[in-house]
Amino acid sequence: MTSVVRPVTGLTVTRAAVSDPRVRPLLRELGDEYSARYGKDAHAELARYPDEEFTAAYGGVLLLLLEDGTSVAGGAFRRYDDDTAELKRIWTHSAHRRRGLARRVVAELEREARARGYRRIYLTTGPRQPEARALYLATGYTPLFDTAADPETIGPLPFEKHLGGRRPENHLSTARTRSARPGNHPKETDQ
User: Residue 191: which of 125, 98, 119 has the closest Cα?
Assistant: First the structure.
């Protein structure tokens, strides 16, 4: 099920399920790009989290930016913990880059996270994605790593942004939705 959230300068922002056919270009291009940058097993990264983690019932969302009904950009978040949404799958179609669409996706995801009561956003991006690193720095995310270090020596590059706001009213079990992957957790002092 999808629903239109709001038009954004000629674009429509729409909530979508991972199974929505309009999400396929996002997942296909992301998988291809990850594979080109990180190797053949990169497609597995997209399947790491169950699709339901990107639904409201689990504290998440997947948004698409549509132009004339076609997906041109998108992204998602999943519930990381009671106060934190984790951004995932931020994407702009290769034919529509350099238009500020990724910034719009991030802003829409932040709005949605704030409306759901999250007070913090956490994310990681890969060391071979300088465009993503630049996007998060430019949109006010705090790097949780040494920005002077060679990204290849760090691995996934963690960022956070504090949103403020109230606690989510829909209290979900952290064990049900939080990733247990080592190194994918915020610093203890940030809790």
Answer: 119
Q: What is the structure's pLDDT at 164?
A: 75
- Whether pLDDT at 47 is above 50: yes
Which amino acid is it at 131?
E
C-alpha distances out from residue 145 to 88, 108, 139, 158, Å: 19, 25, 17, 7
Give residue-wise pLDDT tens across range 77-110.
Answer: 999 999 999 999 999 998 899 999 999 999 999 9
Query: How many residues are given for the chain?
Result: 191
Q: How many CB atoms lie within 10 A of CB 178?
A: 19
Distance CA 45, CA 5 (A): 28
- 101-115 vs 130-138: helix crossing angle, rounded to 10: 60
Closest alpha carbon to 38 in 134, 129, 143? 129
Q: How many helices (H) and strands (E) does the chain have?
A: 6, 8
CA of residue 132 relative to chain centroid, distance: 11
